[in-house]
């Protein structure tokens, strides 16, 4: 899943290449992913429109076409973007293809078609729940500790689930939640109500430090290959069965709700029954 650091790099790469470019034509290769809310035929309506801006909000990318239209992409677990030449081999997972007036292509792919792309009038942006129902972005200026604590207060349940939900703070997904909780020394399944003031302080620090630190690594390793999913540098996520980089204990992997949680039982002690 592209998360805030990933989409930060994608957006910064695409902005100088897309803004000012006109969509010559577009192709919807597979159904179900695109939600066309304009009432018009997609390819006819978007063709001839000029891209005027790119923005990222949490785990969503917004492409603006002046004052009338927007394309909002929510990649979810298996979606991503590829900027390439039309001569590059078309992957079977490609969902949308945008031909640009300079000869380049922008492609949206989604292996399991779990993401969504919304093409809609700008006055309907407030109908996208994932866009409207977000907390402060994790890459924006940090909230102070009191603000952060207040943002978490309305939410119940396990701390990892609260982080990934995006309503307390936006842009954190499964991978970076694992990394943040490892950095903070917190058991991922600990109830938020059980966090001590000292633990909240560590969580606040890690929430802002970990995603920000990842950006420079991603910029270096992704380069122009914005379709690449770079995760190898992470300390615990995806490292189940490997030694913890801090203490050497074998990193645990627990699968639930279609996602895997990785953590160190020594550095992040806890029990499912707390």
Q: Quick summary of this structure?
A:
This protein is an alpha+beta fold. Helices cover 28% and strands 24% of the residues.
**Care to count the β-strands?**
13
The major β-sheet equals: 5 strands, mixed
Percentage of residues assigned to helices:
25-40%
**Cα end-to-end separation:** 29 Å
Widest sheet, order of strands: 2-9-5-4-3
Give the ordered list of helices and strands.
HEEHEEEEEEEHEHHEHHEE
Morphology? globular
Range of strand content: 15-25%
Any idea what the radius of gyration is? 20 Å
> What's the number of helices?
7
CATH homologous superfamily heading of the largest domain: MutM-like, N-terminal
Structural class: alpha+beta
Tell me the layout of helices and strands:
Layout: H1 4-18, E1 23-28, E2 34-36, H2 42-46, E3 53-57, E4 60-65, E5 69-74, E6 79-84, E7 94-100, E8 105-110, E9 116-121, H3 129-132, E10 136-137, H4 145-152, H5 159-165, E11 169-170, H6 174-184, H7 197-222, E12 252-256, E13 259-263
Helix pairs in contact: 1-7, 6-7
Structure report:
With 274 residues, the protein is α+β, with helices and mostly antiparallel strands. The chain has 2 domains: 4-132, MutM-like, N-terminal (N-terminal domain of MutM-like DNA repair proteins), CATH 3.20.190; 136-263, Helicase, Ruva Protein, domain 3. The chain has helices at 4-18, 42-46, 129-132, 145-152, 159-165, 174-184, 197-222; strands at residues 23-28, 34-36, 53-57, 60-65, 69-74, 79-84, 94-100, 105-110, 116-121, 136-137, 169-170, 252-256, 259-263. Helix 1 (4-18) packs parallel to helix 7 and helix 6 packs across helix 7 (197-222). The longest helix has 26 residues, at 197-222. The mean pLDDT is 95.
């Amino acid at each position: 899943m592209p998360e805030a650091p990933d989409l930060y790099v994608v957006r910064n790469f695409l902005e100088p290449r897309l803004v000012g470019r006109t969509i010559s034509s577009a192709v919807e290769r597979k159904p179900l992913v695109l939600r066309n809310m304009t009432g018009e035929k997609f390819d006819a309506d978007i063709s001839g429109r000029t891209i005027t801006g790119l923005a990222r909000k949490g785990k969503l990318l917004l492409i603006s076409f002046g004052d009338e239209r927007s394309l909002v992409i929510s990649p979810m677990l298996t979606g991503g973007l590829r900027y390439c030449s039309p001569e590059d081999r078309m992957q079977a997972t490609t969902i949308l293809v945008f031909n640009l007036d300079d000869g380049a292509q922008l492609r949206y792919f989604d292996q399991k078609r779990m993401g969504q792309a919304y093409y809609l009038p700008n006055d309907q942006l407030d109908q996208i729940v994932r866009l409207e129902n977000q907390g402060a972005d994790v890459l924006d200026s940090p909230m102070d500790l009191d603000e952060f604590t207040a943002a978490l207060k309305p939410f119940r349940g396990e701390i990892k689930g609260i982080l990934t939900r995006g309503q307390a703070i936006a842009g954190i997904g499964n991978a970076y939640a694992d990394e943040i909780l490892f950095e903070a020394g917190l058991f991922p399944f600990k109830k938020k109500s059980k966090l001590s003031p000292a633990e909240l302080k560590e969580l606040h620090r890690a929430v802002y430090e970990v995603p920000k630190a990842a950006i420079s690594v991603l910029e270096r390793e992704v380069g122009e290959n914005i379709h690449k999913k770079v995760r190898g540098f992470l300390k615990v996520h995806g490292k189940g069965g490997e030694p913890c980089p801090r203490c050497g204990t074998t990193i645990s992997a627990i699968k639930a709700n279609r996602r895997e949680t990785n953590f160190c039982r020594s550095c992040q002690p806890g029990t499912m029954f707390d």
